[in-house]
């Protein structure tokens, strides 16, 4: 290798090293930034999800608790008003000594078999004075039952739960008392159920069939005493300690929600809370934040390892990718230079790659296509402008030609009248004269159409009755309709009360033209229907015939000047109608099916102020 080559290599090698180093730094910084932002956002997302899920657990278990309380209330009330229980009380009133035994038997047939569920610890029936009537409880437990407030509530006519407490055997329990009534509603006594919260409430709060979060749910009373045991955390036994934690304080104010705080054991937890006012309970569900963040930590560790391996691979192919990306970029540059030179047909070949360069090529080609469309639209606009100017010049020319032709036509008309007076009555001459007069009338009609086309629409608008102007137009075409045996049926309620802002003459001529077209398209004994309707904002006029209809080709060219399908027409009628309708602020729509008929719909703003 020569000295010159070595010096070139020495000059180029630092550049590639710097490029490699700069690329590596950018990749590492990007990976760190993305990883940090991703980790932060993931933690926030996990926290939001944990809050939503914990709160959903709170509401779910609150609903289950309310369902259990309601079901047990219904069970107690059904039992207290059952025929056997009421009958035993009535027998006792009559002095029947077997009444307590009959009532005792009723305890063995509790409704819905709640006695077999293991959640009923004791059942007692009391008389209206609150004294024992019959019971399956121990004497010690029965004595304790008689001292609870729910007995007084039941004897006063209310079905009510008592507080969760430890019964005489040290088992957490809750009492439920209901009044015993006869059919007249008279209170005969009370029934008292004692339920085990371990078999009823505790399973609801520790249910993991729907929510397997490792969460902790428990109840607190008004004094912040924990009423239920812990499933996950090492809390003391229920009814033995207070839990004045932040969500409990917030729940006791009657609110529901979720918050992050330091738990009873000193760990950060997310806790959902709600208040059950009928029992003065606060329902709390906690989830340890470290447990919630475990998936994020695992994901971060895996992502870090994957990123390191990916960086090694990316660094090795960085130079190769740079060369690969240079070619399409150069093609875009070359194509840009051609566009700048005036070649608007150039396109950069698009590859199957789905990267930024492929997007750049696609956007460049779209830009060139947009320039071509803009140039084409400009060309069409120029053509339309030239056509408009040409049509304006044609209109001026037509007006001049019509003016010049009317004088000789008037002279011809007068001379034909003179010739008609001098005829001797020969049939052939008379027929010839009539043909000349018909041709003359046809020329006059054509000149009138040309003159109408050359004129600008009138700017004189008046408030006119829709019914009146329609009737005038229908009267004008009646002779043509009678000649073809076609009936024109005018429909619409209170047409005379519907008003339009329009030029009456232009409106009448437009309606006459449309009605004449409908009549000419109709067969013998067919009906042309004219309908009028008014809404809050627009007036709609529809002219419908049952004639031969129009093809797609005819519909597309219907409003072109000098286009006609009639041998005796000049093709300006519909063009003039469209011009007048547009000038009066209306809209014209045509629906037609070849062989079935045509409907012309005119829509105008109302003329009411």
Count of DSSP-assigned helices = 14
Classify the beta-strand content into a percent band: 15-25%
Q: What's the end-to-end separation, in Å?
A: 97 Å
Largest sheet: 6 strands, antiparallel
- Strand-pairing-aware structural class: alpha+beta
Written description of the protein model:
The protein is an alpha+beta fold. It has 14 helices and 17 strands. The strands form four sheets. Strands 1, 2, 3, 4, 5 and 6 form a six-stranded antiparallel beta sheet that branches. Strand 16 and strand 17 form a beta hairpin. The protein is elongated. The relative contact order is 0.06.
Keywords:
609 residues; alpha+beta; single chain; 14 helices
Write the layout of secondary structure elements.
Blueprint: H1 3-80, H2 83-93, H3 99-106, E1 120-127, E2 132-135, H4 139-146, H5 149-155, E3 160-161, E4 165-166, E5 172-181, E6 187-196, H6 201-205, E7 216-220, H7 246-251, E8 257-262, E9 268-276, E10 281-288, H8 289-340, H9 356-422, H10 427-454, E11 462-465, H11 466-483, E12 487-491, E13 499-502, H12 504-521, E14 527-534, E15 538-545, H13 552-556, H14 573-583, E16 587-593, E17 597-605
Parallel strand pairs: 12-14
Antiparallel strand pairs: 1-2, 1-6, 3-5, 4-5, 5-6, 7-10, 8-9, 9-10, 11-13, 14-15, 15-17, 16-17
Give a nutshell description of this structure.
The protein is of the alpha+beta class and 609 residues long. The protein has helices at residues 3-80, 83-93, 99-106, 139-146, 149-155, 201-205, 246-251, 289-340, 356-422, 427-454, 466-483, 504-521, 552-556, 573-583, and strands at residues 120-127, 132-135, 160-161, 165-166, 172-181, 187-196, 216-220, 257-262, 268-276, 281-288, 462-465, 487-491, 499-502, 527-534, 538-545, 587-593, 597-605.
